[in-house]
């Protein structure tokens, strides 16, 4: 086996020839850094702790070694068991992980199943009764099947926790510990997380045995290939500005993020009424509605997908040119995950944030977390008579806001200290690419082997 620094093709990693054929079929030739670092250790049976953002290729980093293991021992799984268990925070992410396993296993067709909420138990019961090579599940519904006795984990050989920090955000840590308690002690365990809060570190200490540690980016950096820009805007003018931006046909596929489910529906309806094809995806939608919206977006029938943060890490669609933060997230880390929906698979992308007066503290938190100052365009004068509160509400229901600062073309954190980056109303597409901290933090971003 070649050293990690010499890995240039998947064949250098020692993967089964059947998997190499599938990768060639998918058009994958060169491993990403997380794949080059993780796969050799996983083929040796090591536990792994991976700090990696979405879009770094981590699904293949754990899927390929698991499939290699199944190929080396082709015994059929017993009824109501699963040889490999992958836990994911959302239904969309679970479905996409399962699709990846099917793609990489194209030439030997392992049995792959998905267990998520929002759908009937009966098809899932029938699937479990046959036994599975790979089971991808969300924690809540999985516990239901464990409690009913329709699934046993005593024969599970590999456990993967994907997006562990997001599962923490959704309150899944206790269910995860309940699931882990039912697994055999002799197993291979992999934990992937984009950030490493104290609770996740504690969980990793309890679950992993002498793990290999892989970190391809610091936990709170944004993709270097994403150009980021902020529009300072009065809340009541956000929806009109959003339509103006999306009328640019260079934005061929965009995801717009809102804080609330109701806000997502309202923004999608406003875009539709303005002639911009859009659909909403959030937790109040049924599983079939969410899959239909995601499928339409992936296949290009829908140009804009409006989503809440619960869907931020479950959307893995190539060719997303732009991410728009219609409302800034209340948790700064969510900004990193949102803009990670673009610039995937080596492409570049653009992230646009609409920031009203009430969101300035959120903007400061994002800049502090990501260690960068975002360039901006001031559009507040255009909506000065409208309130800067909940921008998803109809403007007629909002009181008037105070007039903007007299020197309105200045950064909200440095009023009176720094000139505007661009004249008011300047086009985003005409902005030069902002400094995203890539050069300043190149040393910190170097993969750790």
UniProtKB/TrEMBL annotation:
Record domain Helicase C-terminal: where: 237-385
InterPro entries, per database record: DEAD/DEAH_box_helicase_dom (IPR011545), DEAD/DEAH_RhlB (IPR044742), DEAD_box_RNA_helicase (IPR050079), Helicase_ATP-bd (IPR014001), Helicase_C-like (IPR001650), P-loop_NTPase (IPR027417), RNA_helicase_DEAD_Q_motif (IPR014014)
Annotated ranges, domain Helicase ATP-binding: 39-214
Keywords: ATP-binding, Cytoplasm, Helicase, Hydrolase, Nucleotide-binding
Residue intervals of the DEAD-box RNA helicase Q domain: 8-36
CC annotations in GO: cytosol
UniProt-recorded Gene Ontology molecular function terms: ATP binding; hydrolase activity; nucleic acid binding; RNA helicase activity
GO biological process terms, semicolon-separated: response to temperature stimulus; ribosome assembly
Ranges of compositional bias, category Basic and acidic residues: 376-391
Pfam families: DEAD, Helicase_C
EC number: 3.6.4.13
Region (Disordered): 376-449
Record motif Q motif, residues: 8-36
Ranges annotated as biased composition (Basic residues): 439-449
Reactions that this protein is recorded to catalyse: ATP + H2O = ADP + phosphate + H(+)
Family matches, as PANTHER family: ATP-DEPENDENT RNA HELICASE RHLE, ATP-DEPENDENT RNA HELICASE RHLE-RELATED
Name this polypeptide is given: DEAD-box ATP-dependent RNA helicase RhpA
Organism from which the protein derives: Methylocystis hirsuta
């Amino acid at each position: 086996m070649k050293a990690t620094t010499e890995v240039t093709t998947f064949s250098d990693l020692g993967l089964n020839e059947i998997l190499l054929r599938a990768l060639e079929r998918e058009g994958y030739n060169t491993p990403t850094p997380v794949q080059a670092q993780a796969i050799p250790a996983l083929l040796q049976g090591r536990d792994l702790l991976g700090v990696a953002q979405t879009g770094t290729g981590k699904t293949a980093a754990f899927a390929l070694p698991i499939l290699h293991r199944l190929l080396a021992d082709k015994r059929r799984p017993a009824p109501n068991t699963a040889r490999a268990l992958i836990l994911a925070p959302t239904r969309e992410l679970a479905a996409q992980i399962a699709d990846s396993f099917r793609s990489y296993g194209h030439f030997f067709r392992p049995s792959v199943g998905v267990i998520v909420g929002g759908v009937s138990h009966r098809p899932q019961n029938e699937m479990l009764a046959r036994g599975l090579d790979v089971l991808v599940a969300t924690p809540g519904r999985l516990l239901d099947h464990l409690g009913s006795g329709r699934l046993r984990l005593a024969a599970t050989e590999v456990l993967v926790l994907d997006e562990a920090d997001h599962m923490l955000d959704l309150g899944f840590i206790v269910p995860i510990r309940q699931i882990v308690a039912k697994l055999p002690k002799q197993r291979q365990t992999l934990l992937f997380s984009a950030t490493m809060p104290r609770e996740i570190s504690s969980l990793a200490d309890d679950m992993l045995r002498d793990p290999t540690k892989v970190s391809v980016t610091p936990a709170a950096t944004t993709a270097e290939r994403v150009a980021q820009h902020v529009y300072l805007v009065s809340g009541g003018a956000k929806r009109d500005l959003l339509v103006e931006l999306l009328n640019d046909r260079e934005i061929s596929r965009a995801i717009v993020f809102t804080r609330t489910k109701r806000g997502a529906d309202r923004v999608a309806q406003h875009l539709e009424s303005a002639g911009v094809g859009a659909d909403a995806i959030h937790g109040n939608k049924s599983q079939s509605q969410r899959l239909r919206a995601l499928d339409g977006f992936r296949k290009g029938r829908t140009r804009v997908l409006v989503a809440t943060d619960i869907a931020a890490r479950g959307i893995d669609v190539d060719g997303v040119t732009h991410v728009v933060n219609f409302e800034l997230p209340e948790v700064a880390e969510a900004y990193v995950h949102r803009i990670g929906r673009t610039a995937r698979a080596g492409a570049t992308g653009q992230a646009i944030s609409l920031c009203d007066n009430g969101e300035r503290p959120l903007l400061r938190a994002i800049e502090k977390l990501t260690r960068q100052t975002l360039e901006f365009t001031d559009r507040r004068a255009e909506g000065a008579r409208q309130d800067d509160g909940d921008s998803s509400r109809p403007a007629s229901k909002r009181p008037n806001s105070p007039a903007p600062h007299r020197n309105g073309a200045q950064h909200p954190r440095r009023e009176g200290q720094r000139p505007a980056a661009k004249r008011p109303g300047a086009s985003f597409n005409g902005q030069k690419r902002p400094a995203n901290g890539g050069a300043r933090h190149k040393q910190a971003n170097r993969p750790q082997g």
